[in-house]
Design a protein that fits this description.
The complex is a heterodimer of chains A (about 350) and B (about 290). Chain A is α/β, with parallel strands linked by helices and about 350 residues long. In chain A, about 40% of the residues lie in helices and about 15% in strands. Chain A has two domains: about 160 residues, D-Maltodextrin-Binding Protein, domain 2 (3-Layer(aba) Sandwich); about 150 residues, 3-Layer(aba) Sandwich (D-Maltodextrin-Binding Protein, domain 2), CATH 3.40.190.10. In chain A, the strands form two sheets. In chain A, strands 4, 5, 6, 7, 8, 9, 10 and 11 form an eight-stranded mixed sheet that branches. In chain A, helix 2 links the parallel strand 1 and strand 2. Chain B has about 290 residues and is mainly α. In chain B, the strands form two sheets. A two-stranded antiparallel ribbon of chain B has the order 1-2. The chains are: A alpha/beta (about 350), B mainly alpha (about 290). Chain B: It holds the Pfam family BPD_transp_1. Chain B: It is found in: Cell membrane. Chain B: Belongs to the binding-protein-dependent transport system permease family. CysTW subfamily.
């Protein structure tokens, strides 16, 4: 009997998330894995007396599914731009009047009032960067300036390519390579994307968005889908022999914002946290740790990552931001992905 | 009457927990599986059998519904790999259980403790340990190379074999324990009698030991098979996410594909398969009881 329970609970845990009791000095943060400097969490708790519980995810889809199930207990989450749009549309976010928060004054003008949150009511843009791929230079000597090497790998790369485990950034990359619009509703175009990915699958070792650092740094795979700053961190902190590719077809852009889910029970603490994280000094600490570009002002004199030593986050390639796809386009994306992994 | 109500009140908390944590969620899953999926996850309360028909019929590139075996393939793969795992577990477990049962009492306790020890460690950690063992330049490959047993080999990780190794490792205690229990109960005098009657060792095993241990073997088989059917971690971490099992497919439908109704209908299907095996065993057990 115990095992029936075990198995059914496993299946059910997907739809049910447990809720903790709300306390006044509590804050539940749900963010990208290894994205916030632990020093900042400690400092914030010391300064404000608010206790932080930190959980992490590795894909926007995971985050959306959690919020959509309605029973999550998070107060601050960090979705990317197209998911901010979807979440606003689906009524999953609290209107925090972002444009009147002190944090908003720190936001770079070019990230204010964008298409995903036109009147800046729900989100404070926080970090941005690109999704591309990283090569291990010990194992791979070939060029890394096109998506061709990644999607149609040859030599040492064939059979040793690793791809993100969600379609969110890999399908746009394939679209860049094939010169197809993001979120296209044309079936013929998506069929081409499918064929490209299907052919690539023969050379793929693993589909995964977890533990990328150890996999590519150790040379277990020679090419791995990755994000700019994460790749840079591995290169700088662990001396990994890796290089972030600058494909001539372009990189997939993303921007993560801080938002408050609709059923957050500590939204005042959430706003305090958002304002605090956007303060210049804290944003600088975060920039130095997370190593992605900051959407809020930082103290340039204390910034470690500069143009000369950080090619990853000062890309020469053209950048195209992912959009929120229409249901019809999204259906095609899902079709490609399910067919690919069946 | 008084006794009955004692039972009732005593069991009430258990009933409450069961219905709240098991029956209710199952009903929700069942309900969602008959609804229409929303474009961004979630569902609309519109009755539809679409998620069930999707198991067999999916829309092709031109949106025509065509018979498609892609999901049946995943289900078949799940059944096959789970069955194979159970068979391997059985082959390995029997000698192990037999060996343990022949030890002194102290040794038995120690060995059984060692068998159950891995259960004290989180499953993610245990599966991840296999990633470290099997990966390129991992523990296994580098030691094989050190002894000159292999040259340059392809990765041992990210294939069905690696996945099975992980599954066998994870679930084997569930096979060893029931088999051990039934071997323990075995009357050794029967083995002696068999050898007195000039039965060969093989014959004794086939005609005396195995039939008497059958309840333990069947129980162990089901105990391994059932969690294998819903496994998610091993295909993801060791299989490389390239070949899906039913558990991954369900996870995918709730996450990436945002098709909750379909995910729910697959969950119902998985549950039916699991129930089938459990009922099979319950049926057998009751038959055995009747016999004795």
């Amino acid at each position: 009997m115990k095992y029936i329970t075990k198995v059914s609970l496993l299946a059910l845990s997907i739809s049910l998330t447990t809720g903790a009791n709300a306390e006044n000095n509590q804050l539940n943060v749900y963010t990208w894995a290894e994205s916030i400097d632990p020093v900042l969490i400690e400092n914030f708790q010391k300064e404000t007396g608010i206790e932080i519980t930190l959980d992490s995810y590795t894909s926007n889809e995971d985050l959306l599914a959690k919020l959509k199930s309605g029973s999550s207990d998070y107060d601050v989450v960090f979705p990317s731009q197209h998911f901010v749009k979807i979440m606003i549309q689906e009524g999953l976010l609290k209107n925090i009047d972002a444009k009147n928060m002190t944090a908003f004054k720190q936001v770079d003008d070019r990230w204010k009032n964008k298409w995903w949150d036109k009147s800046s009511e729900y989100s404070i843009p926080f970090v941005y960067g690109t999704a591309g791929y990283t090569v291990n230079r010990d194992k791979y000597k070939g060029p890394a300036n096109s998506w061709k090497e990644f999607f149609e790998p040859t030599g040492a790369a064939a059979g040793n390519v690793a791809v993100f485990s969600t379609p969110d950034e890999i399908i746009p990359a394939a679209q860049l390579y094939l010169d197809i619009d993001f979120c296209t509703e044309k079936r013929t175009d998506m069929k081409k994307v499918y064929q490209l990915l299907k052919k690539q699958k023969e050379y793929v070792a693993v589909y995964s968005s977890d533990n990328i650092s150890s996999r590519i740094s150790s040379g277990e795979v020679v090419m791995h889908n990755w994000w700019d700053g994460d790749s840079m961190r591995a290169r700088k902190n662990n001396n990994a022999p890796i290089e972030y590719a600058q494909p001539k077809e372009g990189l997939v852009g993303w921007l993560d914002s801080m938002v408050v889910p609709r059923n957050s029970r500590n939204s005042d603490n959430a706003k305090t946290f958002i304002n605090w994280m956007s303060e210049k000094d804290n944003a600088t600490i975060e920039y130095n740790y997370y190593a992605h570009s900051s959407a809020v002002a930082i103290d340039e004199s204390k910034a470690i990552h500069k143009k000369e030593n950080s090619p990853e986050i000062f890309p020469t390639a053209f950048i195209k931001f992912t959009r929120a796809c229409s249901p019809a386009a999204q259906k095609l994306v899902d079709k490609v992905w399910t067919k690919l992994l069946q | 009457m008084k006794k009955l109500s004692w039972n009732f009140w005593g069991l009430l908390p258990a009933y409450l927990v069961m219905s709240l944590l098991m029956v209710l969620p199952l009903l929700i899953i069942f309900y969602v599986s008959f609804m229409t999926s929303d474009a961004y996850g979630g569902y609309k309360a519109i009755f539809s059998l679409q998620s069930y028909s999707q198991i067999l019929y999916t829309a092709d590139w031109d949106d025509n519904l065509v018979l498609n075996f892609q999901y049946l393939k995943i289900i078949a793969r799940t059944l096959f790999l789970s069955g194979a795992t159970a068979v391997i577990c059985l082959l390995v477990s029997f000698p192990v259980a037999y060996y343990i049962s022949r030890q002194s009492n102290n040794m038995k306790t120690l060995l059984l403790y060692l068998v159950t020890l891995p259960f004290w460690v989180s499953m993610v950690v245990r599966v991840y340990a296999w990633v470290l063992i099997l990966s390129n330049d991992g523990v296994l490959e580098s030691s094989l190379r050190f002894f000159g047993l292999v040259g340059d080999i392809d990765s041992l990780l990210y294939n069905n074999a690696a996945m099975m190794v992980g599954m066998v490792y994870t679930y084997i205690p569930l096979m060893i324990l029931p088999i051990y229990a039934s071997i323990e109960k075995l009357d050794t005098r029967l083995i002696e009698a068999a050898s007195d009657l000039y039965s060969s060792r093989m014959n004794t095993l086939r005609r005396i030991i195995l039939p008497l241990c059958k309840p333990g073997i069947v129980a162990g088989f089901i105990l391994v098979l059932v969690p294998c059917l819903g496994t998610v971690l091993e295909p993801m971490l060791l299989g490389g996410g390239k070949t899906m099992m039913l558990g991954n497919l369900i996870q995918n439908q709730f996450g990436v594909a945002r098709n909750w109704s379909f995910g729910a209908s697959l969950t119902v299907l998985l549950l039916c398969i699991v129930l089938f095996f459990l009922m099979f065993q319950a049926h057998r057990a009751s038959k055995l009881r009747e016999l004795s």
